[in-house]
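User: Hello, can you help with two protein structures?

Assistant: Certainly.
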Amino acid sequence: MANKGNKKRRQFSLEEKMKVVEAVDSGKRKGDVAKEFGITPSTLSTFLKDRAKFEEKVREASVGPQRKRMRNALYDDIDKAVFAWFREIHAKNILVTGSVIRKKALNLANMLGYDNFQASVGWLNRFRDRHGIALKAVCREDSDRLMNGLGIDKVNEWHAGEIIKLIADYSPDDIFNADETGVFFQLLPQHTLAAKGDHCRGGKKAKQRLTALFCCNASGTEKMRPLIVGRSANPRCLKNVHSLPCDYRANRWAWMTQDLFNEWLMQVDARMKRAERRILLLIDNCSAHNMLPRLERIQVGYLPSNCTAVLQPLNLGIIHTMKVLYRSHLLKQILLKRHSSEDQEKVDMRQAIDMIAAAWWSVKQSTVVRCWQKAGIIPMELTDSGPEAAASEPEIATEELWHSVAIATCVPNEINFQDFVTADDDLIISQDLMDTEVIQGTEAGENTDEAGSEDEGEASSPQQPKITITEAISSVQKLRQFLSTCAGVPDAVFGQLNGIDEYLMRKVTQTLVDSKLTDFLQTK
């Protein structure tokens, strides 16, 4: 008789467990799923009960997908610190060997106060297994090439090989690029020289900055809603504000973090799932992008490191055009406030968010397509961009506007409009961890997503009174009356005004209907 006690117990990897859970979610009967994967009903029930743990591990990417056991390390804080360091190094394509990891583990253990910790080969193997890390031998030639940076040969190789494979199954409508940029949102023209080249790692200027994430497709037909990251979770200027032309998040440095980027990715993935679409998303490998969640409808393609200046469409003129439009709007605000004798020239965060979003939506489709073509990702024949499309955006009138403001605000002669536009191009947009920051994160549970205090970084403008819907309708009527006295108003302006009027009328009508119904029910 066979001894049942000798039957080897089967272990499942995290990836296999998630496949079982997904099969049940797809609508299959539990009995059929158990037979398909060769498991007992009790094992299936255990997987379903522990699904929250599996999903958390996948979302955090803290264990490799082939990992079969989720037991914590003996020195869990050392393990977390070493893995946090490894992710930063890996994101920068820096060569790492097993001996380097062991030396770093000893160093971090010493900083954490562990004198008896030994970074043995056995510890290294267990560390690799826990996190699904494969350490490959790299010849000296490859190592030198990585350390010296990637040149034009790598760009040509990517154009000729990898990108062709990536885009083969996607139309230009479904190929996207996402990237972040920093913005000194309160920067005035006369302070351009002081801001130029500032990385803004902290200090007073950190209160005057935002980080904005933009995403658009290769055909220029779809620009996603921007994500703006500020310092203040509940700024005074956003009090009673329930709708914004962007998504807003906050942390103490106004940086993009892994958690914020992954949250944004999951939201995009959910939208694509509802729309039954599959898209390709091209991104760089900055530290906020290096540990992605599990995605169903998004295939992520990484641009080669050190080549984003020539391969990333958003970096080839799209973000620059957005900043040109934003700074132009800012100049108009400054000129208008000076004409009306207002003392406050700076904008608050709410005004800045509105202007950044407006600038983003105003970037023309021809500009977007041209930048994708410049990156070599889509062929020139896909569009019919003529000579007029190649004209600078916005129009030359911006230079005249700059000249007027520069004289009024005493801007030095050596500063021009392009200096004003590019003053914040060198801002840090994501966090690079140092050893001390790694330790702080494991010892004190410090969270880089923790936002600053309520009013940090805001212009000291008085709180605006709440506007009623009746006042809003009256303002639209006044605006319509004003436009009727102007000559040559485009039909599109009247169309937009009609859209606003219709929205407000629907809202006030629904409010009146609801209140009447409530009054009727109360009298019964």
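That covers the first. Now for the second protein you mentioned:
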Amino acid sequence: MEQKKQNPKAEDETHIVSRRIQRISLHITPIPRPPHDHDSNLGLLPCARREKLEVETEKLSVYMRGKYRDIQEKIYEYFNARPELQTPVEISKDEHRELCWRQMCGLIREAGIRPLKYVVEEPAKYFAIVEAVGAVDISLGIKLGVQYSLWGGSVINLGTKKHKDKYFEKIDSLEYPGCFAMTELHHGSNVQGIQTVATFDPITDQFTINTPNDGAIKWWIGNAAVHGKFASVFAKLMLPTHDAKGVSDMGVHAFIVPLRDLKTHQALPGIEIHDCGHKVGLNGVDNGALRFTSVRIPRDNLLNRFGDVSRDGKYTSSLPTINKRFAATLGELVGGRVGLASSSVGVLKIANTIAIRYSLLRQQFGPPKQPEISILDYQSQQHKLMPMLASTYAFHFATVYLVEIYSQMKITHNEQLVGDVHALSAGIKAYVTSYTAKSLSVCREACGGHGYAAVNRFGTLRNDHDIFQTFEGDNTVLLQQVAADLLKQYKEKFQGGTLAVTWNYLRESMNTYLSQPNPVTSRWEGAEHLQDPKFQLDAFRYRTSRLLQSAAVRLRKHSKILGGFGAWNRCLNHLLTLAESHIESVILAKFIEAVEKCPDPNSQAALKLVCDLYALNQIWNDIGTYRNVDYVAPNKAKAIHKLTDYLSFQVRNIAKELVDAFDLPDHVTRAPIAMQSEAYAQYKQYVGF
């Protein structure tokens, strides 16, 4: 009897040891078996390889890239045929600036790409152009954006017919290269605090532009140091009055200010132009600083869509307050954020392509007396790159949606849609650019020492992209705008108002949050349930509603003692997390919609797999939140973790097809370690072997 009692214990210990050995072995050969709904353990067995999904890259690529594939191919083909216009690895700041200018002139004047009309008429096509151009050189993408989206866009969107008639064609042809002069040395995010002034002189019928102090110098102005001939200058419009003050501040307006002589290219009288010098990245863009001293411009140079000054100095506007005029002005400039979000996804696609192709080619170690295996077969490499690849696909479809509603806004001018686009563009730009910045370092690390070679692009991509987190709105500031809008929508819900389109889910989700989590569903752990889009989306939205409710309670509590500003600052990290959670919910919702709409069954199956990985990986990354409120029971959390591992492995099996669907030619990725043929031969040739 005694012997019989001991045997089960010995068997248990043997089983535990075997399981530990098996888990360790997974770091070498992580080949899990597919989970079954009836198997709550979702066990991982080394030899149970599921049949690989069949993915037709061409069909997936057509669905991904849509109707603007042709114009992107035209851009790629132009630069492929012009190797002298491809940016070399080693290039000085001044050489890079001149090359960038020649690249842009070639694109416009030789390739016949004319972007300005698309800025208003077909924004989706414009953003497709910018993404393709940025894939060639991010500096070129930014310089193009300054010329057409910022300088050209400000003239079109903030001006009236007289401005379009005078400037449109010459901006489009690059005869009038220009700048967007908003940021000052002492004021970036706080645009209403800028100090440059434009004072109207009724005697001469002119505005006088002045920089009152060093803090008001226009700073980081793209195209200003070398190529710009004009600038849209943002300044406080001051009108003379007959009271003690002498002038009246009408708020920030935009003015067209000539910078250089059109023939000699010399700076005009009263204008000082200085070079901001060598930067961490984007050295193909000539950033400069501008100081104005009694620079006179005609009254017609006021971009007067939202406010005008008559010959006798009277101000008129369809908008009654400074704040409303300011909001309308900035609202017309959100296209820059939309473009940056789209371009950032383009950068992430390049980084994914390089890192994953390299990881498929590179072999290191393996089982005893057997060939070395691809480093993408290691679970650790899959954990670095597969969720990132899933996020890239998620961001792609989210930015496609953002571009769609931005285009609708430009056509309809629907006030509710304007507010929705403003908040959503702020949030997606902030979220995507922050993620891409971190991912570039992960991709570099995933490629080991070869990733550190400049020729393999990670350093350039990382340095050039880094500023995406700052310009067109600092990411932390933009996320606060999202949080503020969520709180506004929350207030509307409880006052019976109408929610904006993107926020509609809050009505139902908040009701779910205010009730207790379902003790039954919190324990469901089958793969069919975990891969159900409804479960995934409900989980994302539940978290957002929980964060929103608790943020509102905390703000009310702290505002009684600290006031509104102090309470906001006390809860700031909470509010940033809330904003990110909301954006993640929107991204997942748009990914799910894209999967459902995909017409090709094989592509749809691949996208579904990638979407599941994105959703469950995000849930696992914040599993503590779900566990704290018993939304997910311990056994379900364990199942999510195991299923996420399994999905990473399955995505690894089609990783080549997934990055090939980005359809980036070798001359665009330009990383020898990622070339689809003769990778190391090209790499050795570069270093002189």
